[in-house]
Amino acid sequence: MIKLGELVMILDLHRQGLSVSAISRQLGIDRKTVRRYMARGLEPPKYKPRVPQPGVIDPFRPYLAERITSFPALTARRLWRELKDRGYRGGYTVLKEAVRELRPPRTPAFEVRFETAPGEQAQVDLAHFEVVFTDEPGVKRIVWLFSMVLGFSRLIWCRFVIHQDLQTVLRCHIAALEALGGAPREILYDRMKTAVVGEDADGLVVYNRGLIDLARHYGFQPRACRPYRPKTKGKVERPFRYIREDFFLAGSFRNLDDLNVQLRHWLDTVANPRVHATTQRIVNETFAEEKPALKPLPLTPYRAVLKLERRVSHEGMVSIGGNLYSVPDTTHRRILDVHAFADEIRIFENGALIATHVPLEGRDQTRLDPAHRKTSLPSRRRSPDGGSFVICRPGDQVARRSLDFYDAVGRRLADQGGI
Question: Which of 358, 318, 323 is nearest to 338 (CA)?
């Protein structure tokens, strides 16, 4: 039997037009052998079946089979310790492969869909998106999609935002509940930092204080889903994929405001009027049944405040949340008190309110109130004699004197050596 390399040479020389005798002389192979392999062509090599060699795990297979049959949930680590006590000297990987072969396959359990009563639950989450706005060609921006989905009707309320900080999340909650016209009895959250701070020593969930205040105001109970249980929030996580594929992909958006305007139109004309694939009902019609079950909105607006201190810049601006807000030119103190509400920013000097602003959604933006820049430049008036100009500021009182008066003052200073 010739080697694979020799077979390839025979076929290659044959394609080049060499005769059998020439190939035989060049390779030193019998002409009959050359002719036979030319007729056979290139075939995969054939090997004799390998005689199985006894493995280090084989003597212990009966014991493993017995233990796994009696206790199917035993771990490979546990069985490894047991075999080591029985004289096994092999590695853990070999044992794990043997356990995988002997363990009966698990039958996947059927999923039980969890449905909620009308007005019982909503689910909230944030999703990461990347977008290039046409107003900023070539600049990739990260935006976050806040989404609230009612559990019974599957109605979606969502909004794109720049930040995922607490104030932004609270503003989105307020806007969503106002749009829905009520609040559910509980809202289910993933363990995002704006909702869940962590766990205490007893393993109980610690929620963000700002979220607790908002929940107390609107009368809902926050509830965090269990870790590593993504199916718990399926009603809100599946719509993220739906929004990304049906609305967001291949879209063109000028800026964040345009993105949200188009999203609102899509929700009103496509997402919420559709027949839901699970409930087989029109979402808006189901929401009409659910809305009376929502808790009514409180009579007073939510006014929780975050108190800060901020330094005034030389341009008369204060930095709040990565954005600049103006203060009046008449401000004297360099350090001001700031009260940041969910929907308003108030700036105080010595306890007196000097400026209010609507919070900016983005970052590195500036909000300048024109009323804060009223100081004008010094005005120029013509003197009464019609000659020179008198430069003065608004409100200045200048006494009018004759030129003889100034001449007398000059002579007196000269006599005293003052000039």
Answer: 318
pLDDT in tens, the chain (419 residues): 677 778 788 888 888 888 888 888 888 888 888 888 888 776 665 666 776 677 888 999 999 999 888 888 788 888 998 999 999 988 899 989 999 888 877 766 555 556 789 999 999 999 999 999 999 999 999 999 999 999 999 999 999 999 888 888 999 999 999 999 999 999 999 877 788 877 777 778 888 888 898 999 999 999 987 654 555 444 455 788 889 988 998 899 999 999 999 999 999 999 999 999 888 999 999 999 999 999 999 998 887 777 888 999 999 999 988 899 999 999 999 999 999 887 889 999 998 999 999 988 767 889 999 999 875 545 445 555 554 444 455 555 556 677 777 777 777 777 776 54
Nearest 5°: phi and psi at 291? -55, -40
Nearest to 304, CA basis, from 352, 357, 340, 349:
340
User: What DSSP assignment string belongs to 58-127?
Assistant: GGGHHHHHHHHHH-TT--HHHHHHHHHHTT--S-HHHHHHHHHHHSPPPPPPPP------TTTEEEEEEE
Distance CA 397, CA 331 (A): 24
Tell me the whole-structure pTM to 2 decimals.
0.58
Candidates 233, 227, 270; CA nearest to 248 is 270
Contact 189, 125 (CB under 8 A): yes
Gap between the Cα atoms of 318 and 335, Å rounded: 9
**What is the arrangement of strands in the sheet containing 345-349, beginning at the earlier edge strand?**
306-311, 335-340, 345-349, 352-357
